[in-house]
Design goal:
homodimer; 410 residues; alpha/beta; Molybdenum Cofactor Biosythetic Enzyme, Chain A; Molybdopterin biosynthesis moea protein, domain 2; Molybdopterin biosynthesis moeA protein, domain 3; 5-stranded mixed beta barrel; 7 helices; 29 strands
C-alpha cells in the first residue's frame, strides 16, 4: 500500500505528451494549444481612432485655433486619408485609420458644428484635449512577430479571439486520448432496465462518461461480467483500440475480483495496487509496454468518482500538455472529527466564498463510499492528511472540485 | 446613462424561463435539469454487503462461536440466499445482497480457512466485530419516492450518476436559445483573409462563439456592413430565426452607428443605451414584443467580452432556470490607482489562491478596451465601484471569471 502522494507521482510519470493534430479554430475551445501563436502584424496594425469625432493636428490647436474646416470623412474600413490642409480637420469614426497629417482625435461630444460649416471644439473642453488623445498607436499593444500565446495553453474565448485576429483559422492542439470506460460486476444492469431486487443499474460509467464529456472526450462504454476468461478476451481487444482504460469494480479482494490477474495476462504491468486512502483504497493502476494506461477504480460510486477527480484528471491534463493550473485549497468551515487512521481521508465538501473572498469548505457528513446521492450536495473533495482525529475550523487543505464555479449572478 | 446595477436588473427582467425538452441522459451534461428526479427504489435497494468476507448471525458469535461452516457463496448479482443452518456462514462478495438469516459481515482479512474446511474469525479481531458491520442497510441513504435532484440543477457527472441509477435515461432539460452573433464595421475582414493595412480581422464574433460553445450553444455567425438599409433588412430576417442577437460594434455616437435607429425600425424596443462603466459604456440593450432580446455590445474587443461575461452570462443562466450560483469575490492583491470618475471600472485580473485559501485578484495594467491581447493574462474582471481613486490591497470586490479554474495538479 502506498500513500496518495506516491500514487500521484507514479501516475503522472506515465503521462506522456499526446501527439498533436490540426483542427478548426471554431472547434478548438477547451482544447490544449500545441503551437506558439505570433502577431502577424502590429497590434493595432495602424494608428487607430478610438472615438468618433474629428482628427486634427494638435499643433494647430496649441497655437490657438479652435474651429476647423471639415476636409472629409475617414470611415472605419476605408484606406487612410491625408489631411492636406493643415488647419482643417477630418471627421473620423471609431476603428478608422488615423488620417495622415493628424495626430489627435477630439471626440464628437466635445465639438459642435457651426453655421459656417466648421467644427468648433467647445470652449470648456479645449484644455482637456492633449496631443495623441483617443489614438491607439500602431504596435502599442504588440509588435509584428511578438509571441502572443505560448503552446500549452487551454484554449478559451480569449485565445480564440487572439488567434482569429492573426488569421489562425486552424490550430495545432493535443489529440484527445481514446478512452474506454468499463464496468464490471454481475449485479449491474443497463439504465433502461428494471433491476431485480438483487441488482442495481450501472451508474459509474455514466458518471465518468459525463465527466469526460466536460473535457470534450467521448469515451466508449462497456460492461463485462465477472468471468476471468471473458474479461481476458474482452479487455485484450478493448486495450488494442484505446489509449486509456477506466474501470470500476473488480479490484478488491473478493473471489470474483479477477482484474489484477487478468491485467497481468494481457500485458498490463501493475504499477501499484491499493492506496492508503479512504475511500478508494483498492485502486489498481498499471500500464502496458506501449504506454497505454489502466485506471482500475474500486466499484463503489464515490470511490470511483473520487479517484477519477484526484488521479485521472491531473494525468489527463499532463498528457494534453496543459500548463495552466491553479492549486486549489480551502479553509474548513467547521471542525471535522474523524477516527484517527493511517489513511488519507477524502472528505466530501461544499464550497462557499465568504465575504472576505476566502474559499471555505463545508464538510458533508453522512454516507459512506456507497452513498453517491450525497455527492449531489458536494462540489468536490478535500484531502485530509492521515494521522489526525480533529481537523480544525479554518485549517487549510487541498481541494479537488468537480463542479465549475465560475458562474455568478449579482 | 444608467448604472451597472440597474442595467443588470433590466436585463435579468427580460430573462423568461426557456421551454424544456427531453434529451438523452448521455447528452445532458452541462444542461439545466427541468424535472425533479425521485428515487424509484430504496438506496441501497437491499441490505448490501460492503466487504468481501463471510456473512453470519451476530448472535452466534456473541454466544462464543468463532468458527463457521461454509454453507455457500452469495455473489454480487445473484438472488438472495438463505442461511438455513443458523451456526454456519455464507461467503459473500462486495455488492451482494446480504443473505437472509444473517446480519453481519466479517471481512475476509479477519478470517482464516481451517483444515476442517470451516472459516475461523481470527482471535485478535473477534472483539472488533460488531452487529451489522459492513452491511449497508436497505434505504439507509434514500427511500423509494425521495426527491433526489430538484429541477434547476446544472447537470454534472454526479447528477448523471444519480439519474442513471434510478433509470432516467432520458431527462427534461431547458432548451438552449437560438443565438445569432453579428459583427458590424466595414473595417472587418474574414479570419481566412489577409487584411489591407486599414482593415482588421473579425475576432469578437469568434470570442463569443467560443464562449457560447463552453455553454453548449452553437450560435450562427454573421457579418453586416455599416449600411442602414442592409442592416435593417438583414437584422429583421436574423431576428426572425433567433431568440437572442449578440452584436458587436455600431452603437457608439458615430455617423455610421446605425444600429439604435435600425432596431427601432424592426420592432426592438430600447431598454437602455449606455451604462456608466468603463469599458463598455455604449452598450445598447432592447427586446421585441415577443421577448426576443438584443445585446448590442460596443465594438472594442475587451468591451464586447466584458459585457458578455458581466451581462449576458447571468441572463442566460436565469433563462435556463439554473439555480446554482456562487457569488464570486476576491481580494485585491495590491493597491490599484484609478482616475476618479462616475464610471464603474472593470479591471482585468488574474486569480490566485493564497496559502490560506483566499481568492486574490492580481490587477493587470496596460491596454485599453482595444487591447484584447492583454486578456490572455487575465482570468476575469473585477468590478470596482465608481467615485474612488484608490482601491486598497485586501479590499474585496465582485469578480466575473471567464476561465474555469477547477483544475488542479498536486
Amino acid at each position: 500500500m502506498i500513500d496518495t502522494q506516491t500514487a500521484s507521482q507514479i501516475i503522472l510519470e506515465t503521462a506522456l505528451l499526446r501527439p498533436s493534430e490540426e483542427i478548426k479554430l471554431t472547434d478548438a475551445t477547451g482544447r490544449v494549444l500545441r503551437e506558439n501563436i505570433y502577431a502577424d502584424q502590429d497590434f493595432p496594425p495602424f494608428h487607430r481612432v478610438m472615438m468618433d469625432g474629428i482628427a486634427i493636428r494638435y499643433e494647430a490647436l496649441s497655437q490657438g485655433q479652435s474651429s476647423f474646416e471639415i476636409d472629409g470623412l475617414q470611415a472605419a474600413g476605408d484606406p487612410q486619408m491625408h489631411l492636406s490642409n493643415e488647419d482643417a480637420c477630418l471627421e473620423v469614426m471609431t476603428g478608422a485609420v488615423l488620417p495622415k497629417g493628424t495626430d489627435t482625435v477630439v471626440k464628437v461630444e466635445w465639438t459642435a458644428k457651426k453655421d459656417n460649416g466648421k467644427i468648433e471644439i467647445l470652449a470648456e473642453h479645449i484644455n482637456e484635449v492633449f496631443e495623441g488623445q483617443h489614438v491607439h498607436d500602431q504596435a502599442k499593444d504588440r509588435s509584428k512577430g511578438d509571441l502572443l500565446i505560448k503552446e500549452g495553453r487551454r484554449i478559451s474565448a480569449v485565445e480564440v479571439a487572439i488567434a482569429a485576429s492573426v488569421g489562425k483559422h486552424r490550430v495545432q492542439v493535443s489529440q484527445l486520448p481514446r478512452i474506454a470506460v468499463i464496468s464490471t460486476g454481475n449485479e449491474l444492469v443497463e439504465i433502461t432496465e428494471n433491476p431485480e431486487t438483487h441488482q442495481i443499474r450501472r451508474s459509474n460509467v455514466y458518471a465518468l462518461h459525463s465527466a469526460l464529456a466536460q473535457q470534450g472526450i467521448k469515451p466508449n462504454l462497456y460492461h463485462l461480467n465477472d468471468d476471468a476468461e471473458e474479461l481476458k478476451v474482452s479487455l485484450d481487444k478493448i486495450l488494442e483500440e484505446h489509449d486509456v482504460l477506466l474501470l470500476s469494480g473488480g479490484v478488491s479482494k473478493g473471489k470474483f475480483d479477477f482484474l489484477p490477474e487478468v491485467f497481468l495476462k494481457i500485458g498490463v504491468e501493475k504499477l501499484f495496487h491499493r492506496i492508503a486512502q479512504k475511500p478508494g483504497k483498492p485502486f489498481w493502476f498499471g500500464k502496458t509496454k506501449s504506454n497505454k494506461v489502466v485506471f482500475a477504480f474500486p466499484g463503489n460510486p464515490v470511490s470511483t468518482f473520487m479517484c477519477f477527480c484526484r488521479y485521472f484528471t491531473p494525468w489527463l491534463q499532463r498528457s494534453l500538455g496543459d500548463l495552466h493550473h491553479l492549486h486549489m485549497q480551502a479553509g474548513l468551515e467547521e471542525d471535522f472529527i474523524l477516527k484517527k487512521s493511517d489513511l488519507t481521508y477524502f472528505l466530501q465538501i461544499k464550497i462557499r466564498i465568504d465575504p472576505n473572498g476566502q474559499l471555505m469548505a463545508i464538510p458533508l457528513r453522512g454516507g459512506g463510499s456507497g452513498d453517491h446521492a450525497n455527492l449531489l450536495h458536494a462540489d468536490g473533495f478535500m484531502q485530509l492528511p492521515p494521522g489526525k482525529d480533529v481537523y480544525r475550523e479554518g485549517e487549510v487543505y487541498p481541494v479537488f472540485l468537480f463542479r465549475s464555479f465560475s458562474n455568478t449572478v449579482i
